[in-house]
Specification:
The protein has 623 residues and is α/β, with parallel strands linked by helices. The protein has 23 helices and 24 strands. The chain folds into two domains: 220 residues, NAD(P)-binding Rossmann-like Domain (Rossmann fold), CATH 3.40.50; 271 residues, Spore Coat Polysaccharide Biosynthesis Protein SpsA, Chain A (Alpha-Beta Complex). A seven-stranded mixed sheet has the order 15-14-13-16-21-18-22, with helices on both faces. A six-stranded parallel sheet has the order 2-1-3-4-5-10, with helices on both faces.
């Protein structure tokens, strides 16, 4: 299918281009800027459109003169770009039998009342600023042109690129510059990422396409065409609430943040603005939701691979609880057990997991990840990111949703919950990782997991896969991030002081091996965090009792092979903390001794060189 995207450097354009890259076998993409086509001159625009010789199936118009302040001062320019040029585009699409996809705005409504506006609302279809007027005129021009069209009304768009001009980046910038900012608390809308808009635009095109994508002329399902749809994620917040969420994310980056307080104000106090803006920016998306299932609280769509191991091949209650919560953020869960689960155990999972793979492979969690990812690749076209997680944790103690909403503001390629640094190597802990689509579709990602094989030594697993994963993707040029914005010397989930810090910063898990082997962490959990959570208390109590009853088992996962471990981070996933701390002191002492030893060797070599030089000079003088 041949698609032209008009509007280079627009937020949505860039996200469309990135998402179409993963659909190369279906779409042939061409991009043109409004300057190339000349949206400012109607006559030249018509000529430039007619000069397009290719057979085109879809035109996506992302061009938008959206500065509501400037539009009041530059009305002719705004009308030309937002309305008249769009009318010419619609007429061209009718002549060539091209499907026109156009993005409109919530500004076509007056913003009165509290109820989200539906597509057919005529009563409130009365713009209160000139920008909204031009966008409404464009909608009507498209409808009157008799071309095949889809109009998506959107609002509060943002992306995470630093160059983008949007509310999110404005708050991030102000957080670095000011100690106090004022944000409207009476403007309510749905913050929607450009990624969300782009991915669901493509999903919709695929949904309504009846013909083969490689045919000369695309055929679309007529019942979906020539309609207006509201495209957002259906979650509404005030600008004040959104600013606080952005601030909480930015604050995790540390000392650069100057901002101390966000003060809520009413929009009427912003007297310096030359144009009115609607207060109620809520768009009811139920019409499109019935087609695409939009109403999850996250901007991205996730598929999860969950690695399981139990010595007795049992799926414990705590793992079921984990999966129930994971299901709230992941549309599909692929469950992979390194064991031959009985039918009874597999029946526990049928309502939670899309696919169950239960076969002994002896390749640890990464072997399960490898097998789960091979299955996940079959569905990846419909998803924005993959979660890989394992059953080495109790939890979540807090909703996953809050974590994902926070991390969707990050511009990283992959992220985890905690990170430590061992020497020169970063270690993003692999018990919970999220990979975005651009890294998933790279050869680097697929080759890494394809090479996972059985290892007989835990240290090899850690070097190659645990630490190796983070190092590999950083070296490949991908950007990582961590929910807890602090780099620790050792695994923070197993150290008492570090654990207090991360749990106070919304860390959602308790590592099974930590609570099984560390009385101090156990005390923190049971006394401070589980007093009012009887169900989680029960899950942990029952499972730790099971561990205690099994005299040959010190931890629940396969992490008990401790031969030939060489670095402190390799020990910290598997050892009790008191032993870990003692080991760390010993290693530090050994490093100091080694350093002094090396200094002594360097000194001896230097003295030897000096002596040899003196002997050589003496022999030369004698000659």
């Amino acid at each position: 299918m041949k698609v032209i995207i008009i509007g280079k450097n627009e937020q949505i354009t860039n996200s469309l281009i990135e998402n179409f890259k993963f659909e190369k076998n279906k779409f042939n993409i061409l991009t043109k800027s409004s300057q190339e086509l000349n949206f400012l001159d109607s006559i030249i625009l018509k000529k430039n459109l007619q000069d397009i010789s290719q057979s085109i199936d879809v035109i996506i118009n992302c061009v938008d003169y959206a500065d509501a302040e400037k539009t009041e001062q530059e009305k002719l320019l705004c009308d030309q770009i937002n309305h008249r040029a769009v009318k010419i585009l619609a007429d061209f699409c009718r002549e060539r039998n091209i499907l026109l996809i156009h993005y409109s705005t919530n500004h076509v409504f007056d913003g009165k009342g509290d109820i989200p506006f539906i597509e057919d609302n005529k009563e409130n279809l009365q713009p209160i600023n000139y920008y909204g007027e031009t966008k409404l005129l464009a909608e009507r021009a498209i409808e009157d042109s008799n071309c095949n069209f889809l109009i998506f009304r959107i609002s509060w768009i943002y992306d995470n690129r630093a160059i983008s001009d949007n509310f999110v980046n404005t708050i991030k910038r102000l957080a670095l510059e000011k100690k106090e900012i004022h944000v409207a608390q009476d403007k309510i809308g749905s913050p929607t990422s450009a990624e969300f808009v782009a991915s669901n635009t493509i999903r919709f095109i695929k949904k309504i396409t009846l013909s083969n994508f490689n045919e000369n002329q695309a055929i679309f399902d007529a019942k979906f065409l020539n309609q207006i749809y509201h495209l957002n994620n259906g979650q509404y917040v005030s600008r004040f609430e959104q600013a606080n969420q952005i601030f909480r994310y930015s604050k995790r980056f540390g000392n650069m943040i100057e901002l101390e307080q966000i003060i809520p104000i009413r929009s009427i106090s912003q007297q310096n603005l030359t144009s009115q803006k609607p207060l109620n920016c809520k768009l009811n998306n139920q019409k499109l939701n019935k087609i695409l299932n939009l109403n999850h609280t996250l901007q991205k769509k996730y598929i999860a691979v969950f690695a399981h191991f139990d010595k007795k091949n049992i799926v414990d209650d705590y793992a079921i609880y984990y999966l129930e919560n994971l299901k709230l953020v992941a549309d599909k869960i692929i469950f992979v057990s390194d064991g031959d689960l009985s039918e009874v155990e597999q029946n526990k999972l049928k309502d939670l997991c899309h696919t169950i793979i239960a076969k002994k492979h002896n390749e640890y969690d990464f072997g399960s990840y490898k097998r789960g990812l091979e299955k996940a690749y079959e569905y990846i076209e419909d998803y924005d990111a993959i979660i890989i997680a394992n059953d080495s944790c109790y939890g979540p103690l807090k909703p996953f949703n809050n974590i994902f909403q926070t991390m969707e503001y990050s511009d990283c390629d992959f992220w985890g919950l905690t990170i430590n640094q061992d020497g020169y190597h970063f270690h993003l802990q692999s018990y919970f990782l999220v990979f975005n689509k651009n890294i998933i579709n790279s050869d680097f990602f697929r080759d890494f997991f394809k090479k996972v094989k059985q290892e007989h030594c835990k240290s090899d697993i850690i070097k190659k896969y645990e630490i190796g994963l983070t190092t590999h993707f950083i070296n490949c040029g991908f950007k990582m991030d961590s929910f807890i914005k602090k780099i620790f010397e050792i695994n923070p989930t197993l150290d008492v002081a570090s654990y207090r810090f991360i749990i106070q910063n919304d860390f959602p898990f308790i590592k099974v091996c930590a609570i099984a082997n560390n009385p101090e962490i156990k005390k923190i959990i049971f006394e401070d965090y589980l007093k009012n959570d009887s169900s989680m208390f029960k899950y942990i109590y029952n499972h730790t009792k099971k561990i205690k009853d099994d005299k040959n088992l010190t931890i629940t996962s396969q992490h008990s092979n401790l031969t030939n471990l060489t670095t402190i981070s390799q020990y910290t996933d598997v050892m009790p903390i008191d032993q870990t701390n003692l080991l760390m002191k010993k290693i530090k002492k050994l490093k100091k001794i080694r350093k002094k030893y090396l200094q002594a060797i360097v000194l001896l070599i230097t003295l030897l060189i000096i002596i040899l030089c003196k002997i050589a000079v003496r022999n030369y003088n004698t000659i």
